[in-house]
Amino acid sequence: MHSEATIRLGSFALMLVVMGVTETVWPRRQLTTSKPRRWVSNLSISILSTIIARLALPLVPTGFALYCTQHGYGLFNLSSIPPVVAIITSVIFLDMVIYWQHVIFHRIPLLWRVHRMHHIDLDIDASTGIRFHPIEICLSLCLKLGTIFILGPPMLAVLIFEVLLNGCALFNHANVRIPITIDAAMRLLMVTPDMHRVHHSTDMREANMNFGFNFPWWDRIFGTYKAQPDKGHNGMTIGLNIFRTPRYGSILNLLRIPFL
């Protein structure tokens, strides 16, 4: 389990540094607010959310997957599916669950009040990918644990999914410029920054599109895909119209967002 934590944290830290450097060298958009201030706030809220989630639910998905395997809980642990098939199927299914979680957080008003903290960032870059309210992190963890209990995925599948989810969240929020032809090819297999940026538009018709984190297929299958923002990536406005002042970026105000 120690090596599992090292893999998750190591890959996360490496991806954060790589994306932070890349978007500084090849930015897609000109930032409108202070990047250091935003990174401090976003990293701080991420650390706080992680601590609260661990205290509230002292279970990690990979450890729980191992527990379910050892005790025969879950569909895959009750069948004779080949390990490779179980791993691939589990990663894909878990990604679909997170897609629908994201959709539901937009569709249900009470959950949207919690999730909107992620959307009030006035700029979007790699640090936005870790900016989630502690309540949302805890609810998401409960959903993942429940899915693991029902599905019974191999521990390796959950580890792969967790590494992918963290890495892709940093990548597809990054303010990095990718040539259009390369972006088009990448969209066949993964969510790109240009694809996900549409989701952070102040135009709610666009903000309610492109919910995927890892794989781009769910948005196309379920009719929530939009290729480009109407005003273009340089012309679109990021954030929410009701929270346009930088003061909402402080840690205390971020925590208050669901209750405002």
Structural summary, described in words:
The structure is a single chain. With 260 residues, this protein is an all-alpha fold. It has one domain (31-259). Helices cover 60% and strands 0% of the residues. It contains twelve helices and no strands. It has helices at 2-25, 35-56, 61-71, 83-107, 109-119, 134-151, 155-173, 180-186, 193-197, 204-207, 217-221, 251-256. α1 packs parallel to α7 (155-173), α2 packs across α6 (134-151) and α4 runs antiparallel to α6 (134-151). The protein starts with a helix and ends with a helix. InterPro entries: Fatty_acid_hydroxylase (IPR006694), Sterol_Desaturase_Related (IPR050307). Residues 90-224 form the Fatty acid hydroxylase domain.
Estimated helix fraction:
55-70%
**Runs with pLDDT <50, length 5+?**
none
Tally of extended strands?
0
**Element string (H = helix, E = strand):** HHHHHHHHHHHH
Report the structural category: mainly alpha
Instruction: Describe the global form.
Output: globular
